[in-house]
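Tutorial, part two.
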Amino acid sequence: MILKLKVNLRSCQRQPQRPLCRSIQTSRRLLPRPEHIWRTRNERVRLVFAQLRVQTWQNVYVTDQSQASLGARLLAEGLGTAFLVAVVVGSGIMAQRLSPNDVGLQLLENAAATAGGLIALILALGPVSGAHFNPVVSLVARLFGGLTNRELALYSIVQIVGGCVGAMIANVMFELDAVNWSTKDRSSGALWFSEIIATIGLVVVIFCIVRSGRASAVPYAVGVWIGGAYWFTSSTSFANPAVDFARSMSDTFAGIKPSSIPGFLIAQLIGGILAFILVKMLYPVAKEEN
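Running the prediction step on this input gives:
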């Protein structure tokens, strides 16, 4: 009897210990390990950076889901095109005055200023309107479904008006008449062909990058492309109908004679349509921003 009682007492003493050990083991499993905490923090940091990325590019260029109002987008397009033309025309005038005897250096100065200004403007205004600053780019965006017909018309009007204002601003800054019609003739088959190539390149660069899910790289890619196209195209890569009209208002380094505009416009429209076909073949389906 004494032995039985001892055995029972031992079993009673051991019974409450078992659930206690199990609960401790279970709680240890639930506690996060240091590496788990590190991974969780890493994921949070990545999420924050992903939210900070400019995703409006994909929306504006591909699927009309921009959060900005139409008025804000038109303001951004007009303001951006005005500043872009002011950079192009103003840097051309400055280049002529600083390097009067070296056309190559003038072109280098003009190209560098344009590339830098374009990158900054796209970064600043891209999240609002997509930073087209170019009726051909807006036309291709319409073909991809990013704009309505009404928005395309309004974008184009605002871009042309903004560009003309930018040219007048540049003229006045350098003590010239606000409107100083250019006498620089740019009419030849080689120049028109050059504009087709320049426009194809610009549109392909923009929309291939956007549709491949890397829209945040567009500002830098466009700036680098335009800076390079200044040098390898005989027309110095206008590739923009709004810029055509605006630059005709300044009889300076960047000017173009008004009678030369129709040939440039036709070439740029042809280039835009061909570029749309190429992009559609290369990226039939748009990817989301990574």
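The first helix runs from residue 2 to 14. In part three we will examine how such features are distributed along the chain.
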